[in-house]
Amino acid sequence: MDYNSLRAKILELAIAAGDGSVSADELASVNYSLRNVGYSSLSYMRLIDSIENEVGVYLDPEADIEHYETIDSVTALVVAGGAGTGA
Amino acid sequence: MTTIEERTITLDSARAGTGPATWGQRAIWGVVTRLGDDAPRYNLRLNLPVTPPRPASRVLADLTELLRMHDSLHTRLLPEGEDGLRQVVDGTGELPATVRVCTPVEAEAVGEALMEELAGRSFDHAREWPFRVGLVEHEGMVHRLVLAASHTAMDLWGEGRMLRDLTLIEAGESAEALLRARPAVQPLDAAALQATPQGRRRDEAARRYWCERLTSGPRRIFLNPAAPDLAVTHPGRLFPNALLRSPALAVAVERVAARLGVSDAAVLLGAASHQLARISGSSDVLFQVVVSNRFQPAAAESVSTMAQEAVFLLPMADKDFEDAVLRTRSVAFGAFRHAGYDKWALDRQVARLVERGEAADHSCWWNDTRDPGVGPFDTVERPRAALGELLVRTELSWPTDFLPRANVSVAIDVLTAPGALELSMTADPALLSREGMEQLLRGVERLVVDAAMAVKDA
Lengths: 87, 458
Known about the structure:
Chain A: This is Phosphopantetheine attachment site. The structure holds two protein chains of two kinds. By secondary structure, chain A is an all-alpha fold. Chain A has four helices and no strands. Chain B is an alpha+beta fold. Chain B has helices spanning about 25-35, 55-70, 105-120, 155-170, 175-180, 185-195, 195-215, 230-235, 245-260, 265-280, 295-300, 320-335, 345-355, 385-390, 435-455, and strands at about 5-10, 15-20, 45-55, 75-80, 85-90, 95-100, 130-140, 140-150, 240-245, 285-290, 310-315, 365-370, 395-400, 410-415, 420-425. In chain B, the strands form three sheets. Chain B has a seven-stranded mixed β-sheet. A five-stranded mixed β-sheet of chain B has the order 1-6-7-8-3, with helices on both faces. Chain B has a three-stranded antiparallel β-sheet with strand order 2-5-4, covered by helices on one side. The longest helix of chain B has 24 residues, at about 435-455. The interface of A and B includes residues 35, 52 and 60 of A.
């Protein structure tokens, strides 16, 4: 999967994990910042779960918080294979 | 005057099947089986008003539909060899409903007694379904519905879903329509997923995470126990239970969570960790945290037992409150992610670590029982008073004492009450005096309220 397709997939999973609390338009309006749309802890847990199930990459939930701030940083974390603690 | 009768719920052509038990079923079955005669204290108890009263035939039909909806209510658990446990979902069968007939005025008390009767007996999981039903009737109309369930059928989150589904069924919904609208994980499906290579990887990763934290955590948390002699002279000593009811905490925790960009659950767990570290003398603290394991929507809808314990290790928790809260967020993520595993296998690993003296003190427990869908100000008006004024409305009581429980030094539950948050704490008096317990609870409240007041002042 190329970077753009992967990013699109992560965006789709992030919206689904938000369980109706966040839309693609809302995310686009804040530069795809999950933090700025008030993404909840529960949504993050779902997103990490979904990425493992559907993309096959295990993300370290204890990775530094900045890795989970935006769709792009999450995508970068997935590209790096899930590493990221203390990076 | 009360008379006694019996009716029957007949289940026909419901889903049926057999397979290995889920991690959650194995964990709870292991606990209740070990408890023996004391097992009924784990049973779930409900004595529900039926308003307006409904004909008994309607109530039995509603319950039949509820059984058709959730496999766990008509599942038996059978031991299989040394390390096996099978779940058997029966597609047909009968469930007796015990009936008490009395006047409407007596109904609540009669329901209470019936609930204790039904829940006060152990379940024979190999032979009976983990669900008992009682009806309190007057002139053929049910005034109270009494339900008792084994914890192997559902955890507290599952109980909430079951009650919601029963209400919807009473309003005319069918099991099929409800499951179509909101699919719920059934234990046979959960067990099948746990048996896949991905499920096994998760189990192994979770147990590895547990053991790594246990080997790096503090060997003792209470470095200056309050009355160490008690442990020897009073092995059967009672553990006091304290209940802090705080309107101020309910208001303050939301403000602090918003300012720090974390959940209110992280604020409370971070505050408790910081305060435990300060009081116990151990800079690093370790809690066993009860996790619902209901992150995905279909899991959230499940009437089954999915909750398990996560290991939460927060080093240097005593340094700074805000730092403790911020680190709680990421540590809790990791801990919660590793809260699904085969408990029997983990118990064996932990026993080996304990034997070798390599296990951290894991006797502190944290259980945030709050339902995200239920807030303290759903039914009462949010107070307008300043936080400082709200503090004087805090109540501390000592509702009961408990018999000692294995590997429990401190157990704290978080509960939602109308207009307040409650912290219920039970502690071993050999480690922590009543004054120490009060200091811990009031300290948690004070930390959060002070931080919230700083937000307002900023």
